[in-house]
Every structure is written in C-alpha cells, then in structure tokens.
Amino acid sequence: MHGDDKLPLGDLICPEPGCRAELVAVEVRKTGTRFLRNRPGTSDCGHALGRAQSGGPPSAEHRWLQQRLAEMCGDLGHSAIQEHYESRADVWVHNTPPLAIEVQRWPTAFADRSRARQSTGANVLWLLPESASSQKAAKELFRQPAARVRVFEEGSRHVSATPWNPGHSDRVWLSIGATVMRPSADGLTLVSAGNYDAKTFLREVLDGRRRWFGPREVGFKYGSGWARPDEVEQMRAARARVKLRVPAPTLQAWPALVATDRLAVADQAPPTDTPPVAAAPSIPGPEDFPSRPASGSADAVSQAELTHKVDPPTPSVMSGSTQRGWFRRFRTWLTGV
Questions:
Q1: How far, in Å, CA of 27 to CA of 34, rounded?
Q2: CA separation (Å) from 44 to 19, 48, 66, 307?
Q3: Which of 41, 86, 249, 260 yields a CA-CA distance of 20 to 30 A from 76?
Q4: Residue 86 shares a structural domain with residue 50
Q5: What is the pTM of this model?
Q6: What is the largest CA-CA distance in the chain?
Q7: Which residues span the domain enclosing 50?
Q8: d(CA 182, CA 191)
C-alpha cells in the first residue's frame, strides 16, 4: 500500500488457495468503494472479492456443497478434486470426458466461464443453490447446462436443511431439480422431473445416460434441460407420428325410425289420386278351346291342312276377350256351325 488512500499496485492474484487468477484493484469514485476483481481479458474464477451482495471468499454453504458433491462422485467411482488448479473448477471430476462442476450463488460470466472449461475438453455442470435468488442467475438455468441443487432433511422432500450452519445435522438429502426432464403423460413433451436424487443424477451424467439439450430445443417444455437421449428420441418419434396422423372422417348417422312412426306409416291410407293398377289378363280355360272332331268324321281336317291354312296365334299379344273371339271364329270355320 502507498498510503492509506492508495490502492495496491503490482501483480495481484486471487487469495483463494490453489487459485492463481489475476486480479485488479477497482475503486468506485461515486461511493468510494474499493474492491478486487478479475483482470479484464481473463476468465472469472468465481472467487473475486467485489461481489455486489456478499463478496469475500466462498461461503460455508459453497464449501459444504463442494465437499458433498466431491464425496458423491467418489462414491460413484470417480476421482474428484475440489478447487482444481488447472481448470479453476469448483469440483473437477476425472471421467471421459471430464466434468467441471461449478456451484454458483451470484451472477457471473456464465458463458465465458463455460467456454473456458470446455476448451480443456470438459463438460460443464452449473449448480445454483436456493440462495442464488437473483433473476439474472435464475435465467441462466435454461441458457447454460445448469440445474438447481437443494438440501432437505433426510427422509423429506419439503423441509429444507442447512447443514453448513453450526448445530445442524449432516444427515440430509441432496436433490437436483428445475431442469431435470422426464416424459409427459402423452409422451409428446419433456417436463420437469421435480426433485431428482443428486447421486442418481450425477451417475447418469457421468455415464453419458443423461446430457444437456438446448437452448430452444423442440419438445422441451422450457426449451432446454438435462434429459436421457433415449427418452428424447421416443418423444421425437411420438411427435412425428402425431404430425402424420390423418383424422378419420365423422359419419353422420341417420335418425332411427321409432316404433310409433312405423305404426303410423302402416296405418296410413294410400293417396286417393293414385291411378288404379290394370288387372292382369285372364288365362283362357279349357272351355275356351274347341274340341277336335273324331278321326274319320266329315268334319275331320288333317293337321297338315291346318298348318298350311292358319298361322298359330301369338298369345302374348292378345287379350283374353280377343283370344275367345278368335277361337269362336276358328271353330265355326272348322265345323261350319
């Protein structure tokens, strides 16, 4: 220091053990506030001392979450390092690819810090505790590969716990939520799974069975989230089937004829102006045909003679009365009577 009213000069580094981020001294002229922040052009290490609301080194909550997450990864068979020097990650999990876990309570350069971790070949997981209540930080939940981390009393999904405070039990349950997705009831959308067990979530992420999708991902209720690739494919297939489905035409049934209507129709008399139906022609009986004279009589006529002299009538074109008159004339011609 050069006097009580002077800011420190020379190279400054982050005082967090293991962190070598470069800092610069800043003074707000209007208020006279002095603080340290990351040097422009370098990545934000997350430990800068100029936080608007809290500042200073990581809180007890931050350190407790770091330790518990590292222990969980160790239980899953993955080596985890807190405050990883090379990547500056809160928790660096050795895996293929590695996973950089960041616990963040205050607004920061999320995109820049994500790119810095990804440039080392690592995937990134941002975990925002309930104390990260600013709207700016909350918006990053759906823009970055992020999720909410919550701490509940053991055996409860509703009673919050603060095991980092003195006098509180360490028997708690961690959940990951907000952006952990599951299929909807109809299978057409992925929705929030609610409070999801933290160890199960970490196992799925490290095994590659759950990964980040988004932002602006079709079929996701919020446009992004941590989802299982197989469930994403099933959702997309279901949406494709709905698009190809053609609705069946609706058939309009005719109203049924009730019994009373049938009786009324049966009892109804035919209209009086209906023309009468012509009677069918009568078929001539035996009395209408002449009896043939006995063989050898004077009146006998050979069949050949009849055939040559008279053409057989065509009954189909004669009425009954016409047929009877014709036979009378024919009989008179034969008998002469």
A1: 4
A2: 11, 8, 18, 131
A3: 86
A4: no
A5: 0.58
A6: 175
A7: 7-57
A8: 5
Same domain (yes/no): 20, 63: no
Look up residue 180 and give its amino acid.
V
Residue 240 parent element (H or E): helix 229-244
Helix (H) or strand (E) run with residue 112 in it: helix 110-118
For residue 139, give the nearest of 152, 126, 123 by alpha carbon.
126
Q: In the block, which residue shows the tokens 């009786």?
A: 263
**Higher pLDDT pick, 149 / 280:** 149
* CA-to-CA separations, 177 to 148, 182, 195, in angstroms, rounded: 5, 11, 5
Q: Which residues pair with 174 in a beta bridge?
A: 151
Number of helices and strands in the chain (H, E): 8, 14
Instruction: Put the strands of the sheet holding 99-103 in their side by side order.
Output: 80-82, 91-93, 99-103, 123-129, 146-153, 172-177, 196-197
Task: Please tell me which of 43-57, 121-135, 238-252 the model is most confident about, judged by mean pLDDT.
Answer: 121-135
Tokens coding 151: 């701490």
Round to whole Å and give the CA distance between 325 and 322.
5
Which amino acid is residue 189, in one-letter code? T
Q: How far is CA 319 from the centre of its chain?
A: 81
Give the separation between CA 284 and CA 282, rounded to whole angstroms: 6
38 and 172 together in one domain:
no
How many other CB atoms are found less than 10 A from the CB of residue 122? 21
Among the three residues 211, 243, 275, which one is the final residue of a domain in this structure? 243
pLDDT, one tens digit per residue, over 221-273 is: 999 999 999 999 999 999 999 987 755 455 455 444 444 444 444 444 444 55
Reading the block at residue 190, the tokens are 């992925």
Within 10 angstroms of residue 246's Cβ, the number of other Cβ atoms is: 5
φ/ψ of residue 77, rounded to 5 = 90, 15
- Which of 205-213's residues contact partners 24+ apart within 8 Å by CB, and which partners? 205/99, 205/123, 205/125, 206/73, 206/76, 206/78, 206/93, 206/95, 206/99, 210/180, 211/123, 212/123, 212/145
For residue range 55-83, what is the model confidence (pLDDT) as tens digits?
456 788 999 999 999 999 999 999 999 98
76 and 133 both lie in a single domain:
yes
